[in-house]
Amino acid sequence: MCGYLKICAKCTFSTCRARYSFTMKTKPAKHQTVIPLTVCRTGNILHLKKEQQFRHASNVRRGKIAKTVLQGVSTEYYKRLQNTPIQELLAGNITHSLNRNILKVISHEIKKTMQQHDNILLETQLTQSIIRQCDTASYLTPGYVQHFQVDPFGAHLYTETGIGILVNNLRDRSPVTLYLDATGSVISKITGKGRDAPPLPVCEMISSEHSVPPITFWLMQFLLKMSKYTSQQIHQVETNYSWALMQGVILAFNKESMPAYLNRVYAICQKQKTWADIKSATVLHLCAAHVIKAVSSAFGRKTDDKGLQNMATYVFARMQNTVNLDDALAIFRPFCIVFLARHVSKNVTESLEFLEGLITKEDAILQDRTEDDSEK
Fold first, then answer.
1. Going by C-beta distance under 8 Å and a sequence separation of 6 or more, which residues neighbour residue 270?
2. How many whole angstroms separate alpha carbon 138 and alpha carbon 142?
3. Beta bridge partners of residue 207, listed in sequence order
């Protein structure tokens, strides 16, 4: 007799000879908590214990799940969790909804079937070659993966269409600003011209090393390709305060070091440079939002008073928005007097009144603009 229940299983590795049988001799009682099972193995295990292999998404049910998982693991997970009966969830049974790990495995399996090769490096090279050969509309820069390297890993991504859009904008009278940021988010594609149009990802890089050499090489190679289409200069590049991004920009666009760039900027502020000297170089501009966020966080580490933190941040923002050194110094001096003084004095009181006047004046300007917008 085979008993009440018998289940047979085999190892999914094709080279393995292991077979398993699970036998339950009698039917368990209704309230029985410990159920004995007899496990028998035949054949030798011919793979390492740490090696794992999962079921393929080939049958009907898992195949359908795999197709829906392509829309996103989290989307499919919450969709199935929403359709799972409450009684099953309260009992701790999430087999009906599946968990994220199972969905990720299914998603990975279905994506592997679309790959040209199991080796991801060779897969990237094949993709680069296929896209380049299929791009018959491009003249000088076909394809999308324009450069690929292994150590450190890097891929330069841009198209001739993107370069053409940048060149057309450079020919307009208004100066063009490029925004450079290290991020994992997807940038929205351009939908039309105008102030409300989203940014266009002209050039992108995927790299395992965030340092000056790979960033500089990427930018210089892109500028070399762009020089085949136009000789016009990029007016401004805006970055956050990453040293690698800042130095990469001035090396690639201006062929100068950071000290040389700072000396030239100071000479411009001192009105020692002509417009001909200024317009021939690209301006490195730091993102004001990144700077304000960092300064506000630094103030927050010095005090628990939110009002004091907001005031200091507001004054710094006013100083950041000045357009000449005299105005910046006029704010910086009372700013230092107020926040560095140990005791209240006449000088401190006058400086505090000056800073509060700056905030009140800006609040009035913002209020007027709000009223004008509401009238429109």
1. none
2. 5
3. 154
* Residue of 279, 287, 282 whose CA lies nearest to 255: 282
d(CA 107, CA 84): 21
Percentages helix, strand, coil for the chain (3-state, rounded to 5) are 50, 10, 40
Q: Residue 255 and residue 273: Cα distance in Å, rounded?
A: 18
Q: 40 in helix, strand or coil? A: strand
Positive or negative, the CA dihedral 133, 127, 184, 74 is positive
Does the pTM surpass 0.85? The reply is no
How far apart (Å, rounded) are the C-alpha atoms in residues 350 and 38? 88
Angle at CA 310, nearest 5°, toward 308 and 316?
A: 105
Residue type, 295: V
Q: What distance lies between CA 340 and its chain's CA centroid? A: 38
Which residue in this structure is represented by tokens 């020089």? Answer: 227
* Alpha helices (H) in the chain, listed in sequence order: 60-69, 73-83, 86-90, 100-112, 120-134, 160-170, 212-226, 243-249, 258-269, 275-279, 288-302, 306-320, 325-340, 346-375
How does pLDDT run across 23-70, given as a tens digit for each residue?
A: 888 888 888 888 888 899 998 888 777 777 665 555 555 555 655 666
The whole-angstrom separation of Cα 76 and Cα 107 is: 11
DSSP annotation of 47 reads: S
Can you read off the two tokens belonging to residue 5?
């229940």
Q: What is the pLDDT of residue 71?
A: 61
